[in-house]
Amino acid sequence: MNAVEIRDLNVWFGDGASRTDAVKQVSFDVAEGESFGLVGESGSGKSTVLRALAGLIPSWDGSMRVMNEPLGLKRSRQFHKTVQMVFQDPYASLHPRQTVDRVLSEVMHLHGVKDVDTRIEKLLRDVGLGPGFRFRYPHQLSGGQRQRVAIARALAPEPRILLLDEPTSALDVSVQAEILNLLADLREEHGLTYIMVSHDLGVVGHLCSRIAVMQLGELVEVLGVAEMRKLKAQHPYTRHLLDSSIQSVR
Fold first, then answer.
1. Which end of the chain has the lower number of beta carbons within 10 A, N or C?
2. What are the tens digits of pLDDT across the range 37-92?
3. Total of domains in the chain
């Protein structure tokens, strides 16, 4: 079964002469339990696809389905329980005046989760933080710890799908690996489906089994990570990304 199906997705901003087409005729499927990557340079439309799927952009047409349910312009309460998003910047995504406890408990109350105290302690253990972090404020946490809290918040309603928008790009390289390993462990433990946006092929290759390459709003190629590592890309733009990635680590 596919967790996500997208067909002929178009996303635009503005109207008339000022309209900008950010995503054009994008189609792909993500199987349940799969980790799927969207890659491309800045402005390629990859994050726009993720935000349209999350319901954060109303100006789109085409077809999107989640767990076989068609999506409209508004998202249901069940959708927000099934699909959660982890944003790029852990400094901006947490309210500076709310403790970790408040951040997590508000989400759980919103989704009708019971036994909140026990659930919060389990979530903090699941993301590698102990109960001592429960009543801390964001300014008392490192970047990696804040992102762990953001992941715990996304897991609070027990979703089946996580949308990951550059979840490690604002972190130090050493912390990036820790967060990627955490995400890999959580996916296996909870049977989650991931759609991950990144400009870094190394990051996507660490977590995803397939990647979709986007250029100027269009999806130009879908290939397996094994093919990517063997440099077996077909499209010139994908080969360009692979070449650039290889040059950057030399």
1. C
2. 999 998 999 999 999 999 999 999 999 999 999 999 899 989 999 999 999 887 78
3. 1
pTM: 0.93
pLDDT in tens, 153-195: 999 999 999 999 999 887 888 899 999 999 999 999 999 999 9
Parent domain of 108: 2-248
Cβ 153 vs Cβ 104: under 8 Å = yes
The DSSP code sequence of the chain is -EEEEEEEEEEEES-GGG-EEEEEEEEEEEETT-EEEEE-STTSSHHHHHHHHHT----EEEEEEETTEEP-SS--HHHHHHEEEE-S-TTTSS-TTS-HHHHHHHHHHHTT-S-HHHHHHHHHHHTT--GGGTT--GGGS-HHHHHHHHHHHHHTT--SEEEEESTTTTS-HHHHHHHHHHHHHHHHHHT-EEEEEES-HHHHHHH-SEEEEEETTEEEEEEEHHHHHTT---SHHHHHHHHHHHHHT-
Tell me the CATH number at 225: 3.40.50.300
